[in-house]
Amino acid sequence: EKFHKIDILINNAGIGKLLSIEDTSVEDFNLIMDTNVKSAFCFTKYAVPEMKKQHDGQIILTSSVTGIKGHADETAYTCSKFALRGFGQALDHELLDDGIRTCVFCPHAGATNFEVGFGRTKQGVQESGFLTPEDVANALLSVCTQPKHSRIVELRLASNNVKY
């Protein structure tokens, strides 16, 4: 309300559970899809009209390397991250002529508490050499500071100690 415009929308909400398909309840699946995909859809749906009015905007959808290559025992999480990539690709085609750029961000593991939830220890995450929050922030800044005549459609980010 104070600034009267939306320049950037970063859809970064995400949860995951380390569960096989057999161990994933429908409730687990719905929670993961609602948090990771439905929330991105809803925030985007309501930001787009404002961005269209100003014929400008940047939407970033945080997927994951798991949205590029599925991982065992992360079935629902993998499904949600692939869905975000498809959503981003559709938005890119739908909104580009309205001056709205879309980027799907696919980071590898980060040195955060999120990874502890995936069965790693805090010490293991700290010593992992995974991406730092600063690494991620710098990458997203590069997306948001592209000249208006260019865009980063998909960005994959990994630390040097990880091989795809």
Automatic annotation (TrEMBL):
GO molecular function, one term: oxidoreductase activity
UniProt entry keywords in alphabetical sequence: NADP, Oxidoreductase
Pfam family, one: adh_short
SUPFAM superfamilies for this protein: NAD(P)-binding Rossmann-fold domains
InterPro entries: NAD(P)-bd_dom_sf (IPR036291), SDR_fam (IPR002347)
Family in the record: Belongs to the short-chain dehydrogenases/reductases (SDR) family.
Protein name per the record: SDR family oxidoreductase
